[in-house]
Amino acid sequence: MPNDDSTDVRDALVFSRRIFSLGGLWPDKYMPLIPETLVVYIAFHLVTEIWALVELPDRTAIALIMCSLEFVFMFTMFLLFILIRFNNHLKPLIDNMRREMEEEKIFKNNTEKHLYLRYNAISYNFGKYSLMLQCGLVSLIFFRPLIHLLGRSFAEHGNGTVPYEMPYINHMFFDYEYDAGVYVLLYLWETPTLYMPLVHIAEVSLIVTLSLHLCGKFSILSYRIRTVPAKPADRFQENIKSLVQQHLKLTMLTKNLNQCFYLILLVEYLSCTLRMGLCMYIVLINLRTDSVAAINFTMYAVNLAALLYLYSYVGEQFVYESEDLAAALYDTEWPEVMNKDRRTLLTCLVNGQRTEYLTAGKFYKFSLFGFTDMMKFSMGFISMLQARME
After folding, report:
1. Which of 112, 208, 213, 250 could link 107 by a cystine bridge, Cβ 3.0 to 4.6 Å?
2. How far apart are the C-alpha atoms of 386 and 390, rounded to whole Å?
3. Taking the alpha carbons of 380, 381, 382, 385 in that order, is the dihedral positive or negative?
């Protein structure tokens, strides 16, 4: 590659690949039984949560909200596993990105490399640190009953029997509250739920990586258009033709990206917004009574808000880079372009007027402006819950 920059492009797909491979979901390493087994496990979890939800009338409002939150998350994971497992558009997108990286076709010089590295660094750092934070957050929520159990045991100094609690509200077919052996077995049964949030963050990282990869290519194409020499005329015609082909290919890749993820992003949009409202309501209830739970669910709500902001940021970058491409065409040295080439340039301008978006369900367009609407919806949902539960 013609550059001497010591900063290398890093493989931002590595974190998603590792997590998906554990569950047999990575396109190059599909395992026939593991994903199906996990889907059955999630479906059984959903049944037990519905069962517990039906048995909730005599319980507190916090238990009702907690059960609803868990049900929404598990149902989301059920849909995501199915959508990822049977997604025929995912493998071509990943293969295209990997091929471009291996063949070093993305950039030609250091300037183009730096343009791409801005997005590559965001993708890589998000995949790395979000996975670490997700592991810590999931562990806090999963082991919270054990922390409570140890705290109450020390507080009572061994006097009396402390009932055991499960990390999630499910209907259990065995009495476990005062049986340590059964409690341990049931806790082990819940262990696979630790994998579900990791799949979720890996899926988010995959979408962010592929999207920002295309944003980086849009940025490079805009730079090439601004720097294309108007003379000699034959070279200009050849360069413009090449740039138009690159633009058409980028437009097609963006369309394929939306076709690949529009259902997943719709599930993400609805699920994250709803869960964030439920989490904040749980925090308001537990603020004075259970500080550990309040801290855990505050972190959970912040995590969900960060994911929604990330989707909005990526969508905003699509808008910015596609509009900057049109601006780059306008910045071309028109006086230096021959009359016969101006018609070609005009055709490019018409094609460049189309703004690209990251969409959910092919109707909602992610943007930073839309992020404020999602926050308003979550706050309104909290107000509705307060009015209904009080």
Report:
1. 112
2. 6
3. positive
Distance CA 203, CA 222 (A): 29
In this predicted structure, the answer to whether residue 346 has a pLDDT above a threshold of 50 is yes
Parallel, antiparallel, or unpaired: how do β-strands 359-360 and 364-365 relate?
antiparallel
Closest CA to 65 of 50, 78, 53: 53
For helices 14-22 and 195-227, the axis angle rounded to 10 degrees is: 150
Q: Render pLDDT for 246-256 as a digit per residue (tens, 0 to 9).
A: 888 888 888 89
* This prediction's pTM: 0.86
Taking the CA atoms of residue 60, residue 66, residue 71 and residue 76 in that order, the dihedral angle to the nearest 10 degrees is 160
Pick the closest to residue 63 from 272, 291, 292, 278 (CA basis). 278
**Each residue of 11-40: pLDDT tens digit?**
888 888 989 988 888 887 777 788 888 999
39-53, 198-212, 226-240: which range is least confident on average? Answer: 226-240
